[in-house]
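Budget justification aside, the reviewers requested a transparent look at the raw inputs and outputs of the sequence design task funded under Objective 1. We therefore reproduce one unedited record. The lines immediately below are the structure tokens for a 927-residue chain.
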């Protein structure tokens, strides 16, 4: 009996201890990956006028209800489109006498709530903020209860519509974040706000709900593995009896930064007569954020540069209803691009997103909604308090933003400081305010000129506005190098993270970006990686590896710079690899050899050199790779360097000898040359390739070379036999035929083309030659060079040298369906390329460095300002020595920096010695 009594007593005590913590009982699901069906009635639009069910959380448009609206208050059923929700739930009898809060994490846009037919409280106006009602006196305990929620898509509050629904983004309706009940003791800890500084100072303000009896709050700080960080500490309630302040100093805490996201947890206990009444646990980080005017942003005493992106809470099939899994996905993608910051555009995010930023390490700029309009002061005051109450303890949140691009209510600025225990800095996006010039989309010359002539810290909260394949990586290197070296520049935020393409349930499930308005992402709607993803990864790598030419005297030394703020290079890992590439007809895996790397222990911002311990035979390989990983074993980047150049590759690939001499005939208009089963026809007047055939038939590769931005004045062709080779070439004449073309046909069947030419003008956009080939006949390409993504003149980084394979696709960046990498476009550093066709394959090689090959022309697209206009040459397949840059949504390509400008040629004298030269080799054997 004693044993049974003791067991029952211990079980009861355990239940009592457990009961002291806040209990959370979900009425909805926890995210878009785990939902609960509620009863639902939509008042207008699709599937309206009938009771059915809907998953919660969700946006009702994605569930087939109402009307889709993209931004700018395009609510056609203004004030009429509502969602009526009903949900039955149980309230156990054991809850009676407790405090029961009904919590909504986010509802679009106005919310009216009833419990068992009675209002739970006033209507909540505003979409992105957590709010709660005390429903303790409305519940039927030990019985069923009815929750009724009326959600109005368009707010009755004009200022809410100005701030939230006249924006450049999708507008939705519905309960899109979780709904749950908080079950607390009658006396409880209502709210905790923490300020933990880098010097170990810990302060907390604790709001209480009490019965006027003297109470005490104790606290114990732990590491995440459960070890106590110092002894417990406590404070008693004062005269107000509803607030307690606690303080403690923790010696030498592990600090939180984006590079070192060290967190702690603290357990608060509400004690009455020494007995625990309620327990709350919070996670936090020790860190200090300081703004030094006319200087910069300092975290834990270190000046930082922000490498950030704007992020909407968005998923194609669920709108703004997300999940922690998606938050982890997004933060990891940002970290993979070597970003250290994210701006919450243009509203607060889900709590789990901030949790992930805390744990993985991203600086966060958290934003009170406001696009070009703002909340009125009473509404803004309420929502600002909800924002700070919800997000105050996240160490990742280092700044507040009071609205975007004119959506600033200045009367709210002092309230941020009043409500925030940490007194975080406040900025206005796109305004010179609070010591920060945050102007958006300044041209490079303006931004790097005018900005630097001012005195404010420069921090563009939006720059390089992506659209389709423009912006983001295109222009970033120019901007970033200027920002990095400017002492007044604090970094910036790209616009934006992901394409806002929504599944249209009213249009057979197509992905809709509302034209070019939503196609602004670095990644696609489902987080497909576009080419700029990898450019950003390299440009923003905190380890900067300088370019080296691996000549015969190379000793394995690579200059590096540590661009971390808090991390020593000794904490990173470096791996080296040598690779010998296979040929166009080889299916075997390329031989590889690893080598070790010695890296100096460089403090942040120091420069030095790493030393590759290269084997004696390193020159026998084609490419050298160096991979750097951070202390968490996340790849920073893999750099590739050429050991063998195209001339070596061409020498081993191109065969000249054949079984029989070259056969040559001519007619009135054509030269016909045959060798080893290959027959080619050239125009006698222009030298242009007119036809290609082999034993198996014709290859439709014709009409070249045609100079792009050069005069096609190849004239006066002659032919001769040179050893075993046949040579056809034009004649140089200074005034009328200063560009020359030479064809050499080898007995092997290989053909050499050599063009010597002058670009047509001082400034040129495109430099090279074109050929014709029917796009419908192309199946795939395999090439040796930089890949696998296409490049632009102002977006050359991010790729790697190697052998790549790519099947033909019609992907247009930012539009669906997508198959990345895109097939069409410019590709860099050609050695050779094998074209797989519906007929016979053929191979093109070069012995020149820095040759681009271009595959067809993507669909021409632009924007209303004609900033984004991709420029491609004529013809179908091109071999270029100068390609075009690309603009963004808000800037033409020339204004994104030096790399965006046209090519300049000083030697336009038509002297043969000053001409550009391009050599190509063709294998039309069909092998």
């Amino acid at each position: 009996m004693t044993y049974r009594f003791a067991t029952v007593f211990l079980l009861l005590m355990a239940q009592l201890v457990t009961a002291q913590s806040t209990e959370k009982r979900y009425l909805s699901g926890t995210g878009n990956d785990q939902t609960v069906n509620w009863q639902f009635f939509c008042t207008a639009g699709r599937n309206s006028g009938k009771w059915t069910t809907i998953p919660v959380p969700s946006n009702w448009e994605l569930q087939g209800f109402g009307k889709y609206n993209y931004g700018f208050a395009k609510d056609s059923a203004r004030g009429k489109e509502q969602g009526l929700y009903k949900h039955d739930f149980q309230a156990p009898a054991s809850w009676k006498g407790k405090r029961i809060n009904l919590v909504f994490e986010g509802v679009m846009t106005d919310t009216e709530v009833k419990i068992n037919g009675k209002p739970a409280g006033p209507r909540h106006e505003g979409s992105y903020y957590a709010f709660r009602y005390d429903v303790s006196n409305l519940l039927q305990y030990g019985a069923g209860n009815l929750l009724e929620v009326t959600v109005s898509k368009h707010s009755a509050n004009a200022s809410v519509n100005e701030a939230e629904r006249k924006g450049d983004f999708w507008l939705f309706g519905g309960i899109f974040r979780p709904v749950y009940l908080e079950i607390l003791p009658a006396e409880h800890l209502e709210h905790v706000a923490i300020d933990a500084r880098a010097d170990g100072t810990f302060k907390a303000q604790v709001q209480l709900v009490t019965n006027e009896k003297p109470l005490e709050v104790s606290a114990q700080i732990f590491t995440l593995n459960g070890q106590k960080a110092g002894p417990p500490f406590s404070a008693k309630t004062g005269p107000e009896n509803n607030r307690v302040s606690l303080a403690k100093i923790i010696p030498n805490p592990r600090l939180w930064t984006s590079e070192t996201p060290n967190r702690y947890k603290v357990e608060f206990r509400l004690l009455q007569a020494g007995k625990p009444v309620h327990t709350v646990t919070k996670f936090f980080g020790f860190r200090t954020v300081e703004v030094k005017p006319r200087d910069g942003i300092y975290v834990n005493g270190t000046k930082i540069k922000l490498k950030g992106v704007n992020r909407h809470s968005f998923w194609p099939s669920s709108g703004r209803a997300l999940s922690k899994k998606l938050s982890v996905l997004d933060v990891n993608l940002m970290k993979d691009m070597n970003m250290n910051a994210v701006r919450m555009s243009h509203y607060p995010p889900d709590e789990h997103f901030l949790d992930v930023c805390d744990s993985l390490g991203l600086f966060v700029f958290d934003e009170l909604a406001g696009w070009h309009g703002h909340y009125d002061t009473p509404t803004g005051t309420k929502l600002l308090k909800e924002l700070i109450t919800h997000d105050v303890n996240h160490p990742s949140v280092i700044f507040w933003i009071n609205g975007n691009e004119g959506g600033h209510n200045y009367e709210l600025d002092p309230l941020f400081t009043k409500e925030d225990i940490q007194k975080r800095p406040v900025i206005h996006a796109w305004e010179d305010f609070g010591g920060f010039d945050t102007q958006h989309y300044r041209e490079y010359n303006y931004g790097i000129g005018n900005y630097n002539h001012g005195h404010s810290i420069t921090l563009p909260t939006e720059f390089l506005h992506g659209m389709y394949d423009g912006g983001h990586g295109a222009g970033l290197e120019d901007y970033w190098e200027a920002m990095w070296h400017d002492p007044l520049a604090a970094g910036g935020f790209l616009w934006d993270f992901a394409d806002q393409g929504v599944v249209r349930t009213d249009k057979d499930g197509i992905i809709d970006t509302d034209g070019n308005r939503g196609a602004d992402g670095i990644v696609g709607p489902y987080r497909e990686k576009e080419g700029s993803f990898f450019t950003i990864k390299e440009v923003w790598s905190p380890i900067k590896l300088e370019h080296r030419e691996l000549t015969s005297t190379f000793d394995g030394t690579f200059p590096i710079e540590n661009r971390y703020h808090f991390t020593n290079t000794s904490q990173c890992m470096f791996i080296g690899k040598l690779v010998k590439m296979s040929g166009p007809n080889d299916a075997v895996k390329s031989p590889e050899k690893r080598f070790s790397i010695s890296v100096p222990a460089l403090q942040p911002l120091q420069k030095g050199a790493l030393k590759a311990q290269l084997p004696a035979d390193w020159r026998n390989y084609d490419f050298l790779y160096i991979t750097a990983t951070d202390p968490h074993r996340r790849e920073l980047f893999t750099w590739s360097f050429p050991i063998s150049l195209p001339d070596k590759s061409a020498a081993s690939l191109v065969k000249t000898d054949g079984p029989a001499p070259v056969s040559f005939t001519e007619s009135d208009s054509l030269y016909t040359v045959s060798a080893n089963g290959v027959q080619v026809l050239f125009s006698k007047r222009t030298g242009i390739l007119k036809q290609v055939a082999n034993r198996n038939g014709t290859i439709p590769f014709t009409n070249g070379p045609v100079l792009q931005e050069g005069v096609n004045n190849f004239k006066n062709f002659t032919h001769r036999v040179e050893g075993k080779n046949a040579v056809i070439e034009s004649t140089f004449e200074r005034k009328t035929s200063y560009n020359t073309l030479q064809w050499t046909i080898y007995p092997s069947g290989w053909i050499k083309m050599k063009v010597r030419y002058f670009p047509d003008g001082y400034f040129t956009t495109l430099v090279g030659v074109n050929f014709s080939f029917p796009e419908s006949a192309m199946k795939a390409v395999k090439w040796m060079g930089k890949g696998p993504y296409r490049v632009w003149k102002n977006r050359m980084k991010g790729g790697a040298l190697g052998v790549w394979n790519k099947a033909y696709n019609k992907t247009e960046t930012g539009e669906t369906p997508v198959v990345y990498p895109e097939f069409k476009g410019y590709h860099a550093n050609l050695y050779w390329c094998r074209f797989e066709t519906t007929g016979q394959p053929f191979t093109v090689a070069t012995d020149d460095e820095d040759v681009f090959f271009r595959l067809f022309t993507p669909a021409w697209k632009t924007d209303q300002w004609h900033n984004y206009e991709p420029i491609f040459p004529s013809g179908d397949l091109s071999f270029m020595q100068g390609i075009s840059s690309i603009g963004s949504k808000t800037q033409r390509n020339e204004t994104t920096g030096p790399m965006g400008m046209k090519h300049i040629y000083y030697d336009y004298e038509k002297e043969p010695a000053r001409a550009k030269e391009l050599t190509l080799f063709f294998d039309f054997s069909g092998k």
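The radius of gyration is 33 Å. Confidence is low (pLDDT under 50) at residues 1-19. Computational costs for records of this kind are itemized in the attached budget.
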